[in-house]
Amino acid sequence: MSFFAACAEFPNDNADLHGGAVWVSFSPTARPRAVLRATAPRALPSPPAAASELERLPGLEAASVSSASNLDQILDAILLALATPEPEPELASEPSLGAQPEPELEPEPETETETSLDARPEPASEAGDSAGVDEDPDGFCELVAALSEVALASGATRAAAVIADLFEHNLLQEAALAREAVELLVSRGFAERRSGALAPSEAFVATVSAWRAVLRSEEADLSACGAATLDRWAAEVLAALSGTWDRVEDLRRELRRRGVAAFGIIAQAA
Asked: Domain range holding 57?
């Protein structure tokens, strides 16, 4: 004797065992879904509500819900209705972005300030102008500069103050010199007394003029420069101006380090 239950105790797809929902998978890997169906008349009468719900499905207008012979037809109609996918709504097509024409950019007009700055001629560099002029080095000025540097380095600030006037203008300020320096200048023949005032001697002025002409390449004859070499004579003058005659050799070495040689300036010869 078979027993027909109103609903299944466990989910199954056998419609002959119960009148409840049937679990159906619409694809091999899909999750099972419960499908309601009409209750078979063998166990319980079909509820009116179920018949009204089933009549709404397509293809069941002429089907009889209470008839047991139409049970398979009703089940097939339900499965077909659930398996039919609903049409997706059509999306409004958006215009292609690539079809839109790109706006043309107008060139910005040049301002008056930029135009005026661009139109200004570049000033000629001083280095370029001086490069085209071939100036001969002034060896006499280098000699005076070397004497001043050595005097300052040795601490003879009074001597450094009168060197430029003495060599370039033949002027000698007695008040700016120490008493020992004045005595050495007179005794060594670099200065003399004229009307009570101290002035460069004629021999000193002549020697300075001769070395000036040689160092400036105005004269090649060294006979007028005296018996002493340039570095020796310059060291003796500096020793007399500073009042330290015993340091002649030290001052001579310092002058030679600055390019003062025996018969000229080493920088000038290079």
From this structure: 22-83
